[in-house]
Amino acid sequence: SEYSKFDPYLFDPDNFYKHGKNRAFESWGYTVNDARWLQAELEKQALKKYIAGDYTLGKLNKDGQRINIRIEIPRKDGGRMVSFLSGWMVYPNGSLKLTTPYGGK
Q1: How far apart are the C-alpha atoms of 18 and 44, rounded to whole Å?
Q2: What is the CA radius of gyration of the chain?
Q3: Which of 13, 29, 39, 103 could form a disulfide with 85 if both were Cys (CB 3.0 to 4.6 A apart)?
Q4: Per-residue model confidence as pLDDT tens digits over 7-37
């Protein structure tokens, strides 16, 4: 996945995208300094779940099949796990690409 999906898009330090997705991650203790770890963790979990068929189908169009994959990460304060949906595209050539790291609870 592209690093820009995490920094600046997800954490949106300049409030350019105005989506507020950063608030969920910040409430779990994550900051832009965690962007590389989050990128790697989402990629790892998504690939494992995609191969296992653990995803829900979204829109299908000429570009490919959109899918949603549930991701689980620990709160940084040592508390419980949190889970959320991430959005992905499966292209006709079979490649899997992140479209949004946070698609909702």
Answers
A1: 28
A2: 14
A3: 103
A4: 999 999 888 999 999 999 999 999 999 999 9
- For 46-99, write each residue's pLDDT tens digit: 999 999 999 999 999 999 999 999 999 999 988 899 999 999 999 999 999 999
Q: How far apart are the first and last CA of the chain?
A: 21
In this structure, what token pair is assigned to residue 59?
């829109």
Instruction: Look at the alpha carbons of 25, 68, 70, 7 in this order and tell me if their dihedral is positive or negative.
Output: negative
| CA-closest candidate to residue 44, choices 67, 23, 73, 79 | 73
Side-chain-side CA neighbours of 16 within 13 Å: the count stands at 8
- Domain map of the chain by residue range? 3-104
